[in-house]
Amino acid sequence: MERKVIFIMGAAHCGSTLLDLILGSHSKAFSLGELHYIGNHLDKTDNNYARICGVCVDRCSFWNDRVAPRILTQQFSHKNRLRRLISKVNLYRFNFYEYLMQITNADILIDSSKGPEWIRQQLKPFYLWSHIEPILIYLCRDGRAVCNSLLRKYPERGMEYIAQAWKRDIEERNRYFTDFKKRKFKIHYEDLASNPASVVRDICDKISLPYEAEMLEYWRHEHHPVDGGNLGTRSLIFQYRENSDPKFSNHWSEINKGDKHYSKKHYSGIGLSIKPDFRWKFELRSDQLETFDSIAGEINRPFAFPN
For labelling alongside 221, which of 9, 167, 212, 215 has CA 20 to 30 A away? Predict the structure, then answer.
């Protein structure tokens, strides 16, 4: 099988964690999570590091015990070691994804960092990608849902500010998708969450990967995504594992202290299943919807999910 890196691009709160974990549940794939955060963890000057893995309760068997020591034993053993390793200078002589493929033995890596600048930087030394195919998935989500999620997390910013920021992000991502010359396609979060089997099967066809129905129950699989991304989506893994490992019973609360955005009640009510999040339909006020429409209504039309 040809080796591939799947870059998931989208705005914040677009559902990238869900897609990442589903694709990373394939027997030939590995979910990296939002890899652009990795430097914040491995740049620590001590040997304990901050939390690297977004799933493991204790020390991560992958990031802490397999990846970090290998980096420490190489010439990158200095302050800001990983940031230097994946900096623009080192990118011209080192493909970090190929390094991770060697450790994971996976043919396909999933990177849900979402930002065009990060993807552009990783692909700039094209000669380091001669044996790995990059594929871009543009994950679209109704801007009203995204802004509602951001308002829940940052209510002090207000709809006007958040809608303008979302519009700028989408304009940038639209341009990058248009200019991207490799294999690429769009999917919508609402379709993925409402009809996961059909959409995931279609994605597998597009990336030349045999479909495995077990991918949909991502919470049953082992994952080590870089800490970040949607906690609610990851919480299904905690729910599933707490039956066999008591350490997971309070894990989602411990790693989310002080975050009022996260609703444990909402995700506990979902159970072990994939369901779309349409809370924006009853949480956004009419004046907030009017503000959003006046700022970003036009650019949101291709993203808008039927009311």
Answer: 9
* Extents of the domains making up the chain: 3-300
- Contact, 248 vs 242, CB < 8 A? yes
Q: Residue 44: its pLDDT value, please? A: 53
What is the rounded distance in angstroms from the CA atom of residue 242 to the CA atom of residue 11?
31
Distance CA 29, CA 106 (A): 5
CATH architecture of the domain with residue range 3-300: 3-Layer(aba) Sandwich (3.40)
Sheet of strand 184-188, all strands in order from the earlier edge strand to the far edge: 29-33, 108-114, 3-9, 132-140, 184-188
Contacts of 216 (CB under 8 A, 6+ apart): 22, 25, 196, 197, 200, 274
> Cα–Cα distances in Å, from 62 out to 66, 88, 259, 271?
5, 25, 27, 27
How far does CA 1 lie from the centroid of its chain? 24
Report which of 167, 30, 210, 55 is spatially closest to residue 106, judged by C-alpha positions.
30
70-128 tens-digit pLDDT: 664 443 434 444 555 555 445 446 688 988 998 999 999 999 999 999 999 889 878 88
Q: What is the DSSP letter of 140?
A: E
